[in-house]
Amino acid sequence: MSKVAARKPLPGTRARYAPPVIAIPVADPRAVSHDAPAIAREFDGWLDEVDRSGGIAGLAAAVVKDDKVLLERGIGAADWSSGEPVTVDTVFRLASLSKAFAAALTGILVEDGRLHWDTKVADALPSFTLADVDGAQRLTVQDILSHRVGLPHNTYDRLLEQDEPYEVLVDRLKEVPMACPVGACYGYQNIAFSMIGDVVFASTGDFYYHQVEKRIFHPLGMGTATYGRDALEGSKSWARPHHHAGAGWAPFVPSEAYYRVAPAAGVNASVRDIEQWLIAQMGGRPDVLSPALLDTLHTPLVETDRELRATPWKRGRLKEAQYALGWRIYDYAGETLIFHAGAVQGYRAMIAFLPKYRFGAVMLWNCESGLPAGLMPMLFDRYLGLPEVNWAGIDHEDVGDLSGGGGSGND
């Protein structure tokens, strides 16, 4: 990496660290791979390296091109104490990958005429208000699903983690000073986002998770997909959350906290099921998610500039970052990348795809390691023919110099 000359500080001021300017490459369509199966095989080799490293407890991953699954695989342990292996049918928590299901269900109900994107939340939930009372009356379904409520980032998440009931925290949103007017800025939410579940109940008379099961899980054949901790633990094979224990890993009891905000973080599923979700999001199941609905779900609505600096691979590849409806939309070296990551205690998840090429991947793992997160940009770099960078820091001789790992974060 080239050195950047530091400017001398002005008299009477302190020198500030100036991060090096990273030249983001631009993908050349002529360099895009015509052999996606070969890219998937290379990714499979990287999974071997991760497995040998001991850097994760267990992980399941899949690579999809068009409507075809090129790779699906589990590595490591679903339960380190018993030795139960991760398979493609092992169920993981999806954390914030759940948000895209909430947006898709809302869109299906919009197509049914049960809701509108500009439906006012206060019309469906008359007791709802914010510190900006007038603004609360303007807040729409679309604002919720794109994190434009006007609240500070992650409002009341810490109280949720301390077992405060969701219903109490929603009522207390009126006590929070606004970060901006409703609809005017981005502020990532879990509690406010989950009001969409209440809106769905008010509009359909049915529980939110029943609607997702009926309108999305069942039509897509997602047989392991469920909501809630009881359903997770009742799965035939499920990945326990793990933390470091000496040279290995130790499982612990899953936390209940974010299951209380089901639309934001409540889904459980296997990687085999998420393959079907990925195919549908890339346009392969128009009977469930129509092309018009996908266009709406994937249309950016608000800038998320903080994402541009969030991890080394984002600093090295993203030109723009925005949020749509339950999805992040990135300009990834000149190509649109639709992405989301998630994190709850003991679990991490990432899903992403290039809509132009209908090429995507998903990874689910059951520990708080940041190691696997760098594999995703390595995969897309390979597919797009971009310069090779070892974003994950794996020991692989064919990959360029390490440029820093990427953490998934609670996206």
UniProtKB/TrEMBL annotation:
Domain of life: Bacteria
Coiled-coil ranges (or none): none
Pfam families: Beta-lactamase
A molecular function GO annotation: beta-lactamase activity
Domain (Beta-lactamase-related): residue spans on this chain: 43-370
Membrane-spanning parts: none
Enzyme class: hydrolase
Keyword terms of this UniProt record: Hydrolase
Enzyme Commission number(s): 3.5.2.6
Protein name from the UniProt record: Beta-lactamase class C
Source species of the chain: Dokdonella fugitiva
Lineage start: Bacteria, Pseudomonadati, Pseudomonadota, Gammaproteobacteria, Lysobacterales
